[in-house]
Amino acid sequence: MTYRTLATPCTGEIEVSRSRFLADVRRVETEEAAREVIAQVRAHHRDARHHCSAFVLGPDGRLQRSNDDGEPSGTAGAPILAALRGADLSDVVAVVTRWFGGTLLGTGGLTRAYAGAVDTALQDARVVTRELREQVDLPVPHTDAGRVESELRARGVTVVGTDYTDVATLHLSTTDPDGLDAHIAALTGGTAHGIRNGPRWADADG
Q1: Residues 43, 47, 48, 50: is their CA dihedral positive or negative?
Q2: All domains of the chain, ordered by start, with CATH?
Q3: Considering the entire predicted model, what is its pTM?
């Protein structure tokens, strides 16, 4: 199972009938973190009339919330949420700040503006795929650590780090634990064995 999220924060701004709509989209992993971002944006742009928001959380995007922040019901938070879902993103929060320009936009105009601001922010967004990876510890003699690490990296295994005590313990991350077991056996002549510590979500590129 995989899902997509932001690699880095992104922003985008549009103007509609002299109203400014500034979208701030960031990666978060908890509802608490999402609400903290919303509060930060609100505090940063105190002069704005509305700070409408939505967030999507979890590998399956099951946790979804939106807020119209004083705009007519369904004209702000829901379009922001739809834009995030349309981009197939999770673990993200979007806040769209509006500075009123003096002209009422109507429900259709507001819906398009709030969604459009998020779409603009996401146009150049860096997106990363997250995947479920087994975390494995591999104890090996100090004399073998460098060679084993190099060979595993060459086979596409992620080496998260190494701890040195009486042995060198390589901390590994993989989507194919059975294949990793085979690599370890081949590289060490069957003398070393990985210790599985359970799966964890990780960015596919790291």
Answers
A1: positive
A2: 2-125 (3.30.230.30), 131-203 (3.30.70.240)
A3: 0.84
